[in-house]
Amino acid sequence: MSMLNGVSYGLLLFMLSAGLTLIYSMMGVLNFAHTSFYMLGAYVGYSLGQWFGFWFALVLAPLLVGLLGAGFERFALRQVHRQGHVAELLITFGLSYVVLELVQLVWGRSALDYQVPAELQGPLFVLHGVAFPLYRAFMMLVAVGMFAALWWVLARTRIGWVIRAALSQPHMVEVLGHDLPRVQMLVFGGGCALAGLAGVIGGNTHVTEPGMALSIGALVFVVVVVGGVGSLLGAFLASLAIGILQTLAVGVDMSMLALLQSLGVPLPADRATGGLLALRLSQLAPVLPYAVMVVMLIVRPQGILGARQS
Amino acid sequence: MTVTTRSWRQTALRAGPWWLYGAAWLLAPLFFPSSFSLGLLSQIGIGIIVCLSYNILLGQGGMLSFGHAVYSGAGAYLAIHTLRLLADGWPVPVVLVPLAGGLAAVLLALVLGWVSTRKAGMPFAMITLGIGELVWAIALMAPSVFGGEVGISADRDARPALGSWTLGPALHLYALVAVYTLACTGLMYGFTRTPLGRLLNAARDNPQRLGFLGFDPRMVRYLAFSIAGGFAGVSGALTALQVEVVGADMLSSQRAGTYLLFTVLGGTSVFAGPVVGAVLMVFALAVFSAWTQAWLLYLGLGFGLVVMFMPGGIAGWFAAGGLRRAGWQLRSRPLDSLLVVLAAWMAATGWVAMVEMAYRLQLRAVMGERVDFFFWQLQAASATSWLLCGAAAVCGMFALARLLRAPAAVAPSNAAMERRT
Amino acid sequence: MTAVPAGQADGAFALRLRGVCKNYGKTAVIRDLDLSVARGSSLAIIGPNGAGKSTVFDLISGRSKPDAGAIWLHDQRIDGRPTHTIHRLGLSRSFQVSQLFTRLSVIDNLRCAVLWRMGYRYMFWRALSGLRDVNQRATQLMEQIALTPQRDTLAQALTYAEQRALEFGITIAGGADVILLDEPTAGMGRGETQRFIELIRCLTRGKTVLTVEHDMDVVFELADTVAVLVQGELIALDSPQAVRADPRVQQAYLGAAALPPSAGGHGVC
């Protein structure tokens, strides 16, 4: 059960890291505001859901967010393109501040009561007395569907070929006559739309509040680093791994000390370790993804599937 | 081979800005004697140290770190715990506490930096964010050491610092901060002129080529990272001395983001840029935030505009002759320039007024509906106010668009301007 | 093809490649390359585009790692080692597209290049301007490459030819005794090329030099030996005259047609 919950959380992480990876691979831009678009998706989805119903919001909110992203690319990001990647990252950093403030201005500073729609509430199945929510299954379905659609667009359509070509040889693509700026705008908008979609479906199970962008933001970066910067499959694997790891850890109520002892690790007296080992694994859960990242950097800096830099 | 010698006059001229800087720190208390202003000045000094240290990474090394608060936080925590030891009777010289904070931060940076500098560029940025979050999460888990959200507190005047003087009065703390600020500024400027400083610039411009010259760019980045962390630790320790309480927010990524924001705003391409940035930082956090609810929004927008149109930051703009170019523009086309300024002012006023009203709408239950906007009174909920401001904004933008679309005189290069004058 | 110029013992080789292979994906770019370069000699590597000439330089200088084979520098294995290690062992290379420190001045570029050789490591406790030997050597180099008027100009503000000169200056600054020059005269006009050849000849006296070149005049002026690389394989290694007359080389460049007999023809680019 925790596995399934972990998988659904991991898929949500993947929805976010996929968009980020695509934008980074094509444009070299690390979109610091990526999770801000996630937040926008949740808030816009909430409001649209209030007015027109959840299903309408599910389709329209990501589109709106994607449009906003494309607009940002066109009017702001493009201006700093010639200054290099650091400047591009900086402007997305500025955007994250602006989006946060605007969201708070329009929707207020406290958490929103974004509910799962009535038709999707309730359990999908019950196993050993623990219910697996229908909505989580829906989330997984949407994530998998998104992944499949993404794969299909990239592998089978003409625009997908152009995008893949532009991922490795942007200048060549331009020379061949394709409108590179438009492709870049499309990819950026698309990545933001994916983040928005994640927000629409994730915002009601995970809290919808102004701090949501920041809290998941660092995690998405960790996923990208662990999976290997630039690799979609790596991001997928890392998202699942971290999602499962974190969900499982939260469920374990054992202290670190007990866990290590049960694994047969000889330990000095508890006092010597400053009481940190007395912490339960569930309390340590927030730290685990970052610890994984640190270990990965020491052992295999290019990540699971990243390209080794010469 | 010719060797260029510098005359005494030239040396004195080059040192001119330093004399001014030193004099400013020396004489400031005479002009701003209240303890509130001295507190602000101390904050500025602390900000200067941390922003300069951040610029070692960003401006000189091209390394964008989101985790710099870890090192200022380390210095702060060491300082606060040392102060507590002091109260328990340990003979610790308070004036050396910032130094100890710096040392602790260097050691931490040597450890964490080894992992952080494995990669450069964008991956480095992501890694620093992850490590920053890691440290912050760990801090929250060990409240006995880190004080959780509430923080650890101590007194800086439990013991005399120098002779019979304690650090209690704001003036005495200011003196300590001023000495450290001057010293750190000098040291960091000196760093830019050392071989490692140059190699750091080289690693920023072309790390691959640096490798072909026998130096490992990773090692250069690692050493610079540790040095920058050390100075951040000094700044953190001074903060601890000033506010006498250190909580986990000292390690937060929001704080790291603040360092980034104001260092870029001040300017990364000139050594004095972060100094400007630090002044802006203290001004924004202490004064500007009291003027308007929307200060973060303005900050974000202003930051975006600076990134787009002033790549070297505000100080960089000045250093590259921005003022001269603007002056030339004003002198050569005075009427057009005036109209542009007026239109921009009208648009800006309209937009800012609307933003202020929007923010007030949120809080009208508490603060009422009247917005005192410079010389006017606006009603947040009244349609008239909104229409007026909206009209101003829209007209201003239209006028601006029309004026800027007209063929503008191309500002000549600095060299061309020099030939004219 | 094993290529050992007659009369040279193993110990006199500055650079040796044995069985070096490099693939990019499924494409074999360098196939089983054997090459030995005698100490103090000057070798030019020529060949049609796509022959793998720059790749050979990348493999030797450490920018990429060979998939098979071994490379020795003065009898030390260097294949697969990082670029900075290889440079410290005495090998330096220039690039076809100038790789400079764009926001540093000319003098700073040169000073950075000189530092390691002078024994200064990652020093941060003394000012760079106070290191007399570094400054002397850098200034001397600057005069030799005729960039003294541009001493404080940023590298990105130099003209193309000045950048090429600085590129060359940085390459030889470290005093390496094996120098790899990747198309040093690329993009230069006649007169500039002549001057540059003089500069190269003057400043690489006594050193082992490998040059990748397209310009046959440069090859004739600088090289004792010419290696011809076609599709990753060495098809000739001989004196410039012999190589020019070699029918296989002519075929590789031009198909069946022969090279024009007069001196002064440019290589096919």
Main beta-sheet strand count, sense and barrel state of chain B: 2 strands, antiparallel
- Estimate the global geometry of chain B from the Cα principal axes: globular
List unreliable stretches of 5+ residues of chain C: 1-9, 262-269
Percent of sequence in beta strands of chain C = 15-25%
Q: What's the total helix number of chain C?
A: 9
Q: Compute the average pLDDT of chain C.
A: 85
Tell me the number of structural domains of chain B: 2
Number of helices of chain B: 20
Instruction: Please state the average pLDDT score of chain B.
Output: 86
Give an account of the 3D structure.
The complex is a heterotrimer of chains A (310), B (421) and C (269). By secondary structure, chain A is mainly alpha-helical. Helices cover 68% and strands 3% of the residues of chain A. Chain A has a two-stranded antiparallel sheet with strand order 1-2. The model of chain A has no long low-confidence stretch (mean pLDDT 82). Chain B is globular, with a radius of gyration of 24 Å. Helix content of chain B is 73%, strand content 3%. Chain B contains 20 helices and four strands. Chain B folds into two domains: 11-318, ABC transporter involved in vitamin B12 uptake, BtuC (Orthogonal Bundle), CATH 1.10.3470; 321-409, no CATH class. Chain B is mostly helical. Chain C is α/β, with parallel strands linked by helices and 269 residues long. In chain C, the strands form two sheets. In chain C, strands 6-7-8-3-9-10 form a six-stranded mixed β-sheet, sandwiched between helices. A four-stranded antiparallel β-sheet of chain C has the order 2-1-4-5, covered by helices on one side. The radius of gyration of chain C is 19 Å and the shape is globular.
